[in-house]
Amino acid sequence: MLACGLFVSAFLTALAVEAAPRPALEARQSTAALDAAQTAAFKPYSFYAGAAACQASSTLTWTCGANCDANPSFQPIASGGDGDQTQFWYVGFDPILSTVIVAHQGTNTSELLPILTDLNFFPDELDPTLFPGISTSIKVHNGFSESHARSATAVLSAVQTALSTHGANHVTVVGFSLGAALALLDSVYLPLHLPASTNFTTIGYGLPRVGNQAFADYVDAHVTNLSRVNNKKDVIPILPGRFLGFHHPSGEKHIQASGVWIACSGQDNTNEKCTDGEVSSVFEGQLDDHSGPYDGVYLRC
């Protein structure tokens, strides 16, 4: 539910001001184009994120159409959620990629945008039971943390089963939109409960900002292989605004209009080749870019 028109107008005006490029910071941030092989390496995971976006029930049959057909060797382990209060999720094993896959369903852009713009949220501490030892200075969007908490223990149990069943030591967490926010929280949560020998990769598509500066710094220090992939002028990744205290961790890959993928160094890189530089306010964003294409893959059904 969006707030009244005057409130939204004021909010968007403030967002436009806060998102303006900061020359001193931009001078210290760099970009580099990914080559064809680096870009292609994301594609199997894009399909997995797309499969979660297409999930229509908690019963995983792996018959979601093209996004499921693209990874036919996938071996489902467990799934859950109700698509309402709790986003659908699934866990399984990919023998070709030699990794456990954890995927979280996203949400319709028209439903996510109001959540991020009506200010009916607040930064909250992480649950100390789910996130033992995490500093109370680390705060995240309460709507995201509450959604994550509803499936966290079931996902952890499924991952433990998958690792044991397949003798694996690598977990890849993927998600799109709201699902990307849940995947990022999983990338902090799961390592706290799994053996130290477990390796992790996290790939979030169209990821909104999840937490404060302390959270972004914690992710940079502890989540060793994170990519947040943003498509063209997608507006969702610039929300919630930095003026509200939210910050992205490092790891952005920004897809240009030409289709070239750019690796953007640092947090909230304001170079014009990166999302915060190209989409300096919601007025310049395009909701249609949110679902793709991500190297030809659309994360919608």
Briefly characterize the structure.
It is built from ten helices and eleven strands. It has 301 residues and is of the alpha/beta class.
The CATH architecture category equals 3-Layer(aba) Sandwich
Residue ranges: pLDDT <50 for 5 or more in a row?
A: 1-27
The number of domains is: 1
Largest sheet: 9 strands, mixed
Q: Structural class given helices, strands, pairing?
A: alpha/beta
Sheet with most strands: strand arrangement: 1-11-10-9-8-7-4-3-2
Q: How much helix is in the residues?
A: 25-40%
CATH superfamily: Alpha/Beta hydrolase fold, catalytic domain
**Shape category:** globular
What letter string, H or E per element, gives the SSE order? Answer: HHEHHHEEEHEEHEHEHEEEH
Query: What name is given to the CATH topology?
Result: Rossmann fold
